Every structure is written in C-alpha cells, then in structure tokens.
Amino acid sequence: MARDVIVVGAGPVGLMMAGELRLGGVDVVVYEKLPSPPRESRGASFTRRTAECFDQRGLLGRLGETEPADSHFGGVPIDLGMFEENHFGARGISQFRTERMLEGWATELGVPILRGYEVTGFRETPDGVVVAFDGPDGPGEDTARYLVGCDGGRSTIRRLAGIDFPGPEPTRGFYTADVTGIETRRRRIGENLPGGSMVMAMDLENGVTRVVVHERGMAPRDRDSLSYTELADAWQRLTGESIHHGECRWISCFTDASRVASEYRRGRVFLAGDATHVQPPAMAQGLSVGVQDAVNLGWKLAAVINGWAHDGLLDTYHAERQPIGRQLARNARAAIELRLTGEEMDPIRSVMGELVAYKDAAGHLAGMLSGLGIRYDMGPGDHPLLGKRMPPDQELTLPDGTRTRIADLLHTAQGLLITTTGQTAEITPDRTDRLQVLTATWAPGHDPGLDTVLIRPDGYIAWTSPGTDTPLTDALDRWFGTARTTVTTGPA
Q1: What is the 3 state secondary structure string of 250-304?
Q2: HSE-CB for 169 with a 13 A CA cutoff
Q3: How many helices (H) does the chain have, and how many strands (E)?
Q4: Burial (Cβ within 10 Å: 0-12, 13-18, ≥19) of residue 65
Q5: What's the pLDDT tens digit per position in 258-302?
Q6: What is the CA radius of gyration of the chain?
C-alpha cells in the first residue's frame, strides 16, 4: 500500500515537515542520503517567528537556554527595544542541536527516518509518485501520494522535477568556521571594515566560536580545497589578531548568491526550505524561513490527504510562501551590497542609520527580519491582525477560570475558533476533528478587541469579528473544508 507522503531530507526543514504531517495523522517517511546526522553547526540562530513556530508545537523548551539575537540590516543595527512586541530571535544554537530536537520529536510521533537512502529519481502516476532510491541494501522503490523535497540548495528533487531556480551568479566568497580555543572580540552582527571587507565572531555552545571572513576581492571558491590556515591568514590581515592556534571543528565557504524557485509546487511534488530559496547565511534567515515553509504546508497537505479539503488548498502554499522567498532574496542582495560595498556606500549607510531611528521605518525592517511582519491574504477586512499571526503569548481565561496561551492550544496543529459570545452555531460536528471551538474571555492585559477569531493551524488569523467583511462560513469552507463534501485529491 502506498504511503501518504515521502519527505526527502532530514535537515531541520524535512524533520519539521514530517512532524507537522504526522500531527495531521499522515503516514510519512523521511529519506536522508547521509548515513548519520552531521555534527557541523551551519545555521546558528533563528528568527522570532521561527521561535514562535517551535513554541506553538511545544518544542521551544526542548532547546534549552537560548540567547536573544540582535537585529541589523546589512550591518546597520536596529534597536528592537523600541517595540512592544518581542522581535528578538535566538542565537548561539547549533543546527545540530536544532536537528536533534526535531528528530526526537518526529520519532516520538512515529515518523520513520531512513538514513543512507539517496533518492535517485521519481515518476508521477495518476494516483501518486513512485520514488527510486539507493539504500544500504541496494536500489529500491517506494510509492506515496505526494513527494516533498527538503533536500537543500542543490536539491535533487527540484532538478528532477524540472523546476527553474533563477538568480544572479555569485560574485563574492566568504569563509566560515567553528573554532575552539581562541579569544577574540565578539562581533555578533559582523563588523564592516574599510574597503568592503567584513568579519564576524559569535559564541555557539561548549566554547565554540563561529567566525566568518570576507576580504574584499575574495571570489567564490570550492569548499573542498579550503584550509583553516587560509581563513586564519585572512582574519589576521583584516583584524591584526591571530587565530591560527585555534582548533577548527568545521570549515566551509559560501557566496552571495540568492535564488528562488519558480514553483513551490508542481503536481504532486512540493519543495521547501533551501530547495526553494538560497541566500548568504550571514542573513540568518534560511533555516528560519524553511521551518516556516514546513509549518505552512504541513497542515494543508494533511487536510487534503484526510479528505476534508480540496486540492486547491495546496496551491495557497506557493501563493503564500513564494513571495516570502522573493523578499528574502531581494533583502539578501540589498544587505550584502550595503555591507560589502566600500566607502562609496557610506552616505547610504548614514541615511539608513537615520531612518532606523524612526519607529515606523525600523518596524518595517524588523518585521521582515523577524517574520512578525508576514501578512497573508485572507480576504477583505480591516482588523489589524487579519492575515497576521496571532501572538502565541496571547492569553485566554477559560470557563473554569484557568488561563492558557494561544501557543499551548496549537500543540496538536488543529485550528482554533475562539468566541467570547458563545455563538458557534455555524460550526458543525463535521469540523470538530480539525478545529477546536472555545468559548472564553481574553485575559486581563491580553484583549485584542475581538469577539470571535478563527486561527489556522500555523497560527495565522483567517477571520475576525469585528473586522472581516465576509461571513465566517466562507472562511471555514476555505481553510477547514465544507461539511459532508466529496473531495478530489488529484493534482490541480
């Protein structure tokens, strides 16, 4: 019997995707070509919205202590302390630590994670996708209704699907390494140096320092031939400090390339994470945006597989997430030019510094970088929260007097209909398997001015009263399926 979904890639995005699907009751398996989890850190921070996504599933506490991450755009600092909302991300968290947490969660949910299995091809059938792989016991095939490629910037699934990955060719190279045994001044958001060079140093865990170097004129290069001595030499030329004595735990290089997939979905094949968007890791956005891709797609795909949503719901994944990928690529290119162009950029840096002193301008940039500024199209309405995420720390008082946070109500990846009036006549029993209906009051100090609010499983507000110009039934049908309907689950 065919599975529901095959996920390719056991990085943070693939593991998050698998967990989201399993919460929705989906039969999902993860194929990963590496025989064991990598120990390298790569991504070392995540944004505020990604922290909220983990919190919504009860996962944030599993990461242990985290350190607030400052915000900047191309090296221009943004004062996050001026905002009522918390835009601070988390830093110093190795990607290995995040992956270990997500793998533990997915495994607890019953997701098989098959390591040492490299996907080599696939073909679509009228009812699904047949996936070919090379595994520890040789070649084989597996069948599923859908295939999700979370296999990185060099995605095999994207290439096999024939999906374009446009973007300018890289022009700059960067060295990066995780090093122990060095004492150097911390430059957590990076330090611009004369002529368009840059260095960065930030703490990870267990005495590890992440260093990044760009020396003006440094071209893209092959990571396999890069030595730690080359990186340390460049660091010393730029800072006057020697880190040659440090022990290099991991070394790599990256470029200033930014690309976005032309399609996030083609038929029964989906892409997420770096398979859809790549950008310089100095932006600290890739892992975060990828996790949010997974949270956006997972519940929608589960809804179609479970038979209560039409296939068209899956098209909202591309419609909602590809603009975020395009914005990410644009911002990365702008930030790199701002940061690494020489002294001729100083007047623009000065103007940017003046602009971010104004709360509205700083809020726009902070919202893009933190992910809290995302607003999806939910139809006509004028409530300021419509289409945005419901703050997960928003509190409710339940009829028995207990208080609970929105984040704690989203652990099961079901939607929420919260009413302060008790009017739930428009909800039929046919939707209670996918939607929690609560009559409650907003806790003191937590009143968003809403009588009724409909929240999707990803935490975004789909309907409000007051403030939405369409009936609640329209929003329920769009996001949570019409009652007693026959659903077609084939490709659009």
Answers
A1: EEEEEECCCEECCCCEECCEEECHHHCEECCHHHCCHHHHHHHHHHHHHHHHHHH
A2: 4
A3: 11, 27
A4: exposed
A5: 999 999 999 999 999 999 999 887 666 889 999 999 999 999 999
A6: 23
